[in-house]
Amino acid sequence: MQRARYHYDKDVYGYRTPRDVPADDYTPEELENRNRNANLLRLVYAFRSQGHRLANLDPLGLTLLENIRDILPERYGLKNPAEKFNLAGILHVGSSDPKAPLQEASIDRIMEHLRGSYCGRIGFEFTHIPVKAERQWFAKLVESYEKRTFSPEEKRYFSSLLTKSEVFDHFMAKKFPQVKRYGLQGAESMMIVMSTLLRESSANGISDIVLCMPHRGRLNLLTDLLEFPAEALFHKLKGNSEFPKEYADLNGDVLSHLAISKDIDVGGPEKVHVSMLHNPSHLETANPVALGKARARQMHLFEAGTENNCFIGDRVMCVQLHGDAAFAGQGVVTETLGLANLPHYTAGGSVHVIVNNQIGYTTPAMNARSTTYTSDVAKMINCPVIHVNADHPEDVAYATAIAFEYRHRFRKDVILDMISYRRLGHNELDEPAYTQPLMYQKIRALRTVPAKYEDKLFEEGVFQSRADIDAVRDWYNGELERKLEASLNYEPELEAFKGKWASMVHPTSAVTKLDTGVPVETLKKVGIASVERPSDFTVHSRLARYHIENRVTRVSAGTGLDWATAEAMAFGSLMLEGYHVRISGQDVGRGTFSQRHVMLVDSSNERTIIPLNRMVPPPGKQGKIEIANSHLSEYAVMGFEYGVSLETPNRLCIWEAQFGDFFNGAQIVIDTLISSGETKWMRQSGLVLLLPHGYDGAGPEHSSSHIERFLQLCDTPFDVNAKETNPNMHVVNPTTPAQYFHLLRRQINTCSPNNAPNPNQLQRNYRKPLIVAAPKVLLRHPAATSDLADMAPGTTFLPVLGDPLFADAEKAAGVQRVCFLSGKLYYDLVKERNDRGLDDKVAFVRLEEIAPFPADDLAAQIAQFPNASEFWWVQEESQNQGAYSFVAPRLEQLLGGARLHYHGRAPSAAPATGIGKVHKKEVADLMSGTFAGL
């Protein structure tokens, strides 16, 4: 069986790498026949590449079929319809015996076969695939399959799926006429697609499907096929929460975003676990999340040692459902497709199903895309596309089976474009004939898909009477009535905190100070091991001198440790405790500022190693770090990592931006998932965002990580006396390597996989996103270093750092001005204070964790300066940016009526100036103004 070839660093995961299988070689006789009958070969190729353009794909009949001369035999000099040709090596034509295809056929028979294979109600696009073996496989499959037949039992099952979907939509319209349900009417065959994928998965050893889909048909699929309790749906429809009463603090979400995670009995040899993700309304945002979750689930099987002989994607499959307008129009689709075959991102192929209703809200296809098909954007990854007319359920089932078989054989993406229509408006309260009168005149004249299929089966004798047909409708309508009545007494159950999340809880207190220290000898071991390499491994001379030798010297001495060293020791110490680490983003192995080098490259042959993965020689065990250098995307990659974090709570998952402001390309992920996923869906995430931040003259787009945006998304109370119990995320701006070290360890702190829990030590048995305004100049700043003692047992992350000059109460009593600030500005101001000889006049208090707001720690700092008459907030960001607007109303409450003075840049539309002289003047004014009047 052929597999796609991917490269994986052996230091990360040692599972078997798929190998390419060469294409079938033609025999000498076949080659001679192909040369002799080259014109026939050209005709066959014309059908393979152009036949879809003549296929009957549009159930509305509004699409004009093209007049394609390339598929006429006369064009190739084949004018005698009775002339017979040897088919060896050219075409596979079936016969009454499927094991003995025809050896020769007339032009008439060949044309009949080619039209039946390529110009029916299914259209195939595969000749653009660059891999010969895949093209050959596809052509042989399409041409050798006489149209697949289905048993009467299968046909009755298909009919029941279509009927249930229609009954559900009619029931909802009757009982809840004012609800926007985004029904499936006109595209009921989507149920056939999903049922076929589930059954094929069960029969082929796939145990898990990770599914994402938009709102269209979501409730139908959940209720009719995925066993979502209808009483729970009706309970929600009546305005109730989907969560138990004790979780009244959660916001919940709208009806069309509901999800499920459940083992489904699909009638195959095994149940299939389906994880349908919640859907934020921003179109296609769930796609990379599903891909990340699917990969993480498969990787968990490898890490657990249960699937050592599997290929990626053998047990887990990602299925992505799309709307047609969104697939062509949303950039995240293209970004996610770009991940499909990348090392550390592939999930072994996704099945993409476009539920193509030929319209986007009120926008017709001619205005929604610049391509012939909505699926054309997917050709960027050379995946095959199968178009199918959704009015014919058996063709849909057949096309779906081919899509599944391709994905399962080659572990690559495939597109199923199910062309249907939308019987009602975008939502059921909308009148579509306002803008598409002709289309909806045609639609309203059509019998429904379930009704047409029922008629077909009645004519075939599959249904003996109309009573057999009506029985299904009557039964399901009765079931829904009973579920509606049961909803009156329905009590929701919490779906979260199961499986891998069983040790986690919905927190009742925000634990921020934990003992995250590590024994010094362990830290030294990790620090030195982080740069060890084999004797035959040569690194760049400057890297050896300034990075490796310098690290070994400082770690051995235990002093002057820089940011990257502290980070490596945080990673390595967690790995020694059994945790896995994944850091993703552009150039993360080296680091944007050439600071990390957690992955080393041999200068002579570009061989790579990850020294941290070699700390414990076999057969010893340790966690692994995965260095995922991503493609140039923020939206899809951040969404992918969010999906990984949903699946693996005990993995430290990090996404790093090249510069802090680059996150804004993924703002939708932050708004709809990271900041709000827990309160909407009770889905926790421990994802860390590293956003390099700091004003150093780099201009508008490379200075600010827009701390203010994240703080605006935080649910921290304005009343500092209201103790924060469950913050939605943490926003930090650390200024020392040790603080960063403790933050990373705190993020994953829980009962260690390799150790029994310590009942005397606080554990952080929940997950929260961590937003880090990460440093740039502090990466190598001589004053921004830490000692091993700062990371030893008994040490922790401190949300507020006091001024070390004023630890003595007597000296603190002389302070006139207390300046609160955050970030690297501290080091600049300390130097300026020393240069001005004002060490006894002004104190600098660093706010390291801005949200949740550390009111108690700040109050203690304020009390330390009883004679201070001025309290300032100083920042390098513009007044309308940075932390000021968040901090000011809260800090003033702690000052007991004293005024908080702002000092920093004036409000600005851009984050920073791009004019060098202006920047220097702003810095000078910031420095001088801080000490004015002292």
From TrEMBL:
InterPro entries, sorted: 2oxoglutarate_DH_E1, DH_E1, KGD_C_sf, ODO-1/KGD_C, THDP-binding, Transketolase-like_Pyr-bd
Cofactor(s) for this UniProt protein: thiamine diphosphate
Occurrences of domain Transketolase-like pyrimidine-binding (ranges): 561-781
Domain of life: Eukaryota
SMART domains found in the cross-reference section: Transket_pyr (SM00861)
Record key words, sorted: Oxidoreductase, Thiamine pyrophosphate
Family: Belongs to the alpha-ketoglutarate dehydrogenase family.
Name by which UniProt lists this protein: Transketolase-like pyrimidine-binding domain-containing protein
Organism: Polyrhizophydium stewartii
Taxonomic classification: Eukaryota, Fungi, Fungi incertae sedis, Chytridiomycota, Chytridiomycota incertae sedis
